[in-house]
Amino acid sequence: MAKRNPTMQSRERHGMSNSPEFTAWAHMRSRCKNSNSQYYFRYGGRGVKVCKEWDKSFSSFLADMGKRPSIWHSLERINLDGDYEPSNCKWALKKEQMRNTSRNSQITIGGVTRLLCEWVEISGINPTTLRGRIRARWPDDKILDKKRFQKINLNRKTFPCNGENLSIKEMSEKYGVPIKTLYCRIRRGMPIERAVTQPRKNYPGSW
C-alpha cells in the first residue's frame, strides 16, 4: 500500500483550489510537514508546526485569516519561533516581512543601531553591497556612501602606500598579505592602506 503524503489535504469542496489563499495554505503545510520541501529546514526542521484546525481544513484557515488584502500580501508569522496558528499569523506586505525576517539583523553604524532593512531604506544601497562593506570593515563614514571608492588602475607598476610607492609584490612582502588577496582587495575598490593591513578571514575564498 502506497504511503500517504503527509501534506495531502482532506477532500474539501470549497472551489478555491486555484486561489492565492489556497496556495499560501498548501505551501504553509508543505514547509512544515514535507521533509522534501526546499524550505523544510527553516520550518518543520526547526519544529514549526501548523495548528490542528488549519492542518485539517483550508476552510478553517480561510475563516480565520480571510482573503489576502492585495496581491502584494503574503502569509507571515508574527513570532518567527511560533507555529502557524490564528494568534500568530497575518497577511503582511513584503516590506513588513523583511523587517520581521530572521535574516534581517541589527547593524550598528556610527554608534546608531538599526535593522539592515532600515539602513537600506536610509541609504538606498543594495543590502548585499551593504553587508559586503560591513564584512570588509569599511569606515563608518564610508559604509553608507553611495559612491564607491575610486577604482585603482592595476596596470600601474607602483602604488602610493603609507608614504611610499610600492608594487603589489613589494606590498605583499612588506605587509605579509598574499599577492592574490591584495589584487582582489584593490580591484574591488578597497583603499590601499586598508588592503595591506586588514586581517584575512579564516575561510576559503576570503579576501
Describe this structure in words.
By secondary structure, this protein is an alpha+beta fold. The chain folds into three domains: 20-100, no CATH class; 106-143, no CATH class; 149-207, no CATH class. The protein contains ten helices and six strands; from the N terminus they run H-H-H-E-E-H-E-E-H-H-H-E-E-H-H-H. The protein has helices at residues 20-33, 52-56, 58-65, 94-100, 116-123, 127-135, 140-143, 168-175, 179-187, 192-195; strands at residues 73-77, 89-93, 106-109, 112-115, 159-161, 164-166. The strands form three sheets. A two-stranded antiparallel sheet has the order 1-2. The longest helix is centred in the first third of the chain and has 14 residues, at 20-33. The chain is elongated, with a radius of gyration of 25 Å. It starts with 19 loop residues before the first helix and ends in a 12-residue tail after the last helix. Residues 202-207 have low confidence and may be disordered.
